[in-house]
Amino acid sequence: MKRFILVIVAVLLLIFGVFFAIRYYFVFGRGTKAGELNFFVQKGYVWKTYEGRLIQTGFKPQNLGGVQSNEFQFSVTSEKVAAQLMAASGKLLELHYKEYLGALPWRGYSNFIVDSVLSVTDPATGKKVPF
Q1: I want to staple 121 with a disulfide (CB 3.0 to 4.6 A). Which of 6, 21, 72, 92 is the partner?
Q2: Tens-place pLDDT, residues 26-63
Q3: Is the dihedral of CA 59, 125, 42, 117 positive or negative?
Q4: Could you tell me the CA-to-CA distances from 40 to 12, 36, 44, 56, 59 in Å, in that order?
Q5: Taking the chain, what is the end-to-end CA distance rounded to the nearest angstrom?
Q6: Whether the predicted model's global pTM rises above the 0.85 cut
Q7: How do residues 72-126 score in pLDDT, each as one tens digit?
Q8: SS3 for 94?
Q9: Residue 50's closest CA among 67, 25, 73?
Q10: Phi/psi at 117 (5° precision)
């Protein structure tokens, strides 16, 4: 009987471990987003995470004659990428991200984790900014 309970507990722990790994560490999607960096901050009570918002303009109006603005909220885990984004507030950016099925508190508030900055453009001049 003792061995049966031990096997059941081991199987349940294995199932929970596989579920946790898929939910929080499996990369569900990858892609790029482009837009204007609205804000980028480091915040948190226990884990200080980097959080940002990219404003993407669009042409699909919600109201007749309007222009829709889409927000892309993301988190950043890399200090190098965070430093690049801190210096790029108000600029037009192209970001590469990974999408996870769930957020972890030490990784950030968002399911979208930006892992690199592909390009930075100054909207006033239209020229790419070296980073």
Answers
A1: 92
A2: 999 999 999 999 999 999 999 999 999 999 876 656 66
A3: positive
A4: 41, 11, 13, 15, 25
A5: 64
A6: no
A7: 999 999 999 999 999 998 899 999 999 999 999 999 999 999 999 999 998 888 8
A8: strand
A9: 73
A10: -100, 120
Amino acid at position 33, single letter: K
| Residue located via tokens 């990784």 | 107
- The Cα-based distances of 64 to 42, 61, 107 in angstroms read 38, 6, 40
Extract the tokens encoding 30: 């990858």
Structure tokens at 74: 């993301």
CA dihedral for 88, 45, 102, 9, sign (positive or negative):
positive
Residue 38, judged by CB atoms within 10 A of its CB (0-12, 13-18, 19+), counts as middle
CB 34 within 8 A of CB 95: yes
Cβ neighbors of 118 (< 8 A, separation 6 or more) are 32, 93, 94, 95, 96
CA distance 9 to 27: 28
